[in-house]
Amino acid sequence: xxxxxxxxxxxxxxxxxxxxxxxxxxxxxxxxxxxxxxxxxxxxxxxxxxxxxxxxxxxxxxxxxxxxxxxxxxxxxxxxxxxxxxxxxxxxxxxxxxxxxxxxxxxxxxxxxxxxxxxxxxxxxxxxxxxxxxxxxxxxxxxxxxxxxxxxxxxxxxxxxxx
Length: 163
Hints:
Blueprint: E1 4-9, H1 11-18, H2 23-35, E2 43-47, H3 50-57, E3 79-80, E4 87-92, H4 94-104, H5 109-118, H6 130-140, H7 143-152, E5 156-162
Antiparallel strand pairs: 1-2, 1-5, 3-4, 4-5
Helix pairs in contact: 3-5, 4-7
C-alpha cells in the first residue's frame, strides 16, 4: 500500500486532469504538475492511515457506494479519474469539498474512535489495534483544516493513492 495524499487544485488544473486520455497521462500530470508544486497549504498526507480513515468515515469497507455522504467522500467518494486500479486519482468539486469540510469539522476523536473499533474492516491490510488507531488519529489531525481551507478558496481536491 502506498501513501494517500490530498491536493487542493485550481479549476484549470481540474479541467486539465479531466482531459487526460490515459492513466499514464493522468499520473504524469499529477506527479509533474501537482505533486511538484505541492506546499503545506495545498496538500495533506494521510500516509498509510488513509485506508483505516476511509473505512472509519464510511461503513468499514472500501466500497465507495457505501457509507453516508459526505463523510464517505473524504477519500474515495468523488469522481474516479483513473481507469486501471493500480493508481487512484479521485476528484471532488468545490461544492463537494465544502460539504466534506463541513462534515469533517463535526468529527470528534471519540466519535471517530468508536467508528474505528465498532466496524468490521473486511480485507483490511493493516491490523486493527490501539496502536493502529493512534496512528490513524494522528494522520487525521489537520485533514478537517485542509478541507476547510480548500473550501474557503473554492478549490477542487484530488485524493491520490497507489496499490
